[in-house]
């Protein structure tokens, strides 16, 4: 469909520039006229826009956009005019491209939820039922605000989990890199110097060091090959569900890390269910949307099984019991929610509990792993120092006698 840039004059006399895809100039004129504006000039773009790599929009960016849109709606600005304001600079180019198309679809007579669904796959699935419910109830500003808050909380969960996993990994790889440099480039030359000096009576630390150097000379290719295979496995796991499941199971069996990952997934689960159930979405539809959004394959399979059992007529508390993924006290909380009809509040309490648990685990990991890593690094470099200084000390002692 041809792309046009055009200049219009609003009923208030304001002149603005815009662009959009139209099948003909007549359609462009009708669209502008439907807005209550006057078409001043137009130009068809002959050359297509240069293709560019489109990365997925970040949650904080989307959260800010929906939050500002909700603020405009709450202030009494009509949706169409609010979108006009939102797509103006300094709007992010990717967001501008998406919501210019959404605005054009609204001009064609579609609802905001329908226009948004047809314009882009960049919007999180949870936003569509929230927007639809907001349109049905006349509270679109509130549901958009709730959606923005949800995206911010999801970003907090994911950031906390990444921080817990990345910090020790960076420290560990830095230590391995420094140790590899010493073992491959520095220590072999020093050991050769001791041999040329005819020092035969070597201390234990030096013999351990020489054995380590011999092992590193023989087996050093194993390290880059292992890292390369791990990277390839990780990339392939993003595209294949079975490999993705194996990757998640691998992390799920690692001490300490599995607690952080599991807690973050439970925080995600209950935050999602709390948000949608509070908005009036039934539990089966909530689980269906969650199944499409969750990335952890272990949780995804659990959600699929949970949805099947609830769909077969079992209560949620009974279905949770058979999974083994949830802590025992969750069963009690869900049962109370079912008995009192207060499920959204129970889900919110559980989401806050696991969010707080993730934050505490991240803080505890950094405080626990940092001294442990420093102790291991100190031990390794103490052996290196003793291995290097021992022969020198023996040689000086022999010369003095």
In words, what does this structure look like?
- Strands 2-1-3 form a 3-stranded antiparallel β-sheet.
- The chain is elongated, with a radius of gyration of 30 Å.
- With 401 residues, it is mainly alpha-helical.
- Helices cover 74% and strands 5% of the residues.
- The protein contains 16 helices and 3 strands.
- Among the domains are: 42 residues; 94 residues, Receptor-associated Protein; 102 residues, Up-down Bundle (Receptor-associated Protein).
What is the strand content?
5-15%
- The main sheet orders its strands as 2-1-3
Share of helix, binned: over 70%
Protein structure class: mainly alpha
Briefly note the CATH topology name of one domain.
Receptor-associated Protein
If you average the pLDDT, what whole number results? Answer: 79
CATH architecture of one domain: Up-down Bundle
> Can you tell me the overall shape?
elongated
Question: Which sequence of SSEs, written as H and E, runs from N to C?
Answer: EEHEHHHHHHHHHHHHHHH
Oligomer: single chain
The low-confidence parts are 49-54
**Major sheet attributes:** 3 strands, antiparallel
CATH superfamily (homologous) name of one domain = Type II secretion system (T2SS), domain F
CATH C-level category of one domain? Mainly Alpha
Radius of gyration, CA atoms, in whole angstroms: 30 Å
Number of discrete helical segments: 16
Number of strands: 3
Ends apart, CA distance between termini: 95 Å
């Amino acid at each position: 469909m041809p792309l046009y840039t055009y200049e219009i004059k609003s009923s208030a006399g304001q002149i603005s520039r815009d662009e959009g895809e139209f099948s003909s100039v007549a359609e462009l004129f009708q669209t502008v006229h439907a807005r209550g504006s006057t078409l001043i000039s137009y130009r068809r773009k002959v050359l297509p826009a240069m293709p560019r790599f489109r990365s997925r929009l970040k949650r904080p960016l989307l959260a800010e956009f929906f939050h500002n849109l909700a603020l405009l709606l709450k202030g009494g600005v009509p949706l169409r005019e609010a979108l006009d304001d939102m797509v103006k600079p300094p709007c992010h180019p990717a967001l501008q491209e998406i919501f210019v198309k959404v605005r054009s679809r609204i001009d064609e007579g579609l609802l905001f939820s329908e226009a948004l669904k047809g314009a882009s796959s960049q919007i999180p699935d949870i936003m569509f039922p929230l927007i639809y419910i907001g349109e049905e109830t006349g509270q679109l500003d509130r549901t958009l605000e709730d959606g923005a808050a949800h995206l911010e909380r999801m970003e907090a969960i994911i950031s906390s989990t990444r921080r817990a996993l990345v910090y020790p990994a960076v420290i560990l790889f830095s230590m391995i890199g420094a140790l590899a440099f010493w073992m491959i480039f520095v220590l072999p030359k020093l050991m050769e110097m001791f041999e040329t000096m005819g020092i035969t009576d070597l201390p234990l630390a030096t013999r351990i060091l020489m054995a380590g150097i011999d092992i590193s000379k023989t087996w050093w290719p194993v390290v880059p090959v292992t890292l390369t295979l791990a990277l390839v496995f990780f990339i392939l796991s993003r595209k294949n569900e079975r490999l993705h499941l194996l990757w998640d199971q691998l992390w799920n069996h690692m001490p300490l890390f599995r607690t952080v990952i599991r807690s973050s997934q439970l925080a995600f689960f209950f935050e999602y269910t709390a948000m949608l159930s509070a908005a009036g979405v039934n539990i089966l539809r909530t689980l269906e949307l969650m199944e499409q959004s969750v990335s952890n394959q272990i949780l995804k399979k659990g959600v699929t099984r949970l949805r099947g059992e609830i769909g077969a007529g079992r209560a949620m508390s009974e279905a949770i019991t058979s999974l083994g993924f949830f802590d025992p006290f969750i069963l009690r909380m869900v049962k109370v929610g079912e008995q009192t009809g207060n499920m959204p509040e129970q889900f919110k309490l559980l989401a806050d509990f696991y969010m707080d648990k993730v934050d505490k685990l991240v803080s505890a990991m950094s405080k626990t792993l940092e001294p442990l890593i420093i102790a291991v690094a100190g031990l390794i470099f103490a052996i290196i120092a003793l291995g290097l200084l021992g022969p020198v000390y023996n040689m000086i002692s022999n010369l003095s006698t």
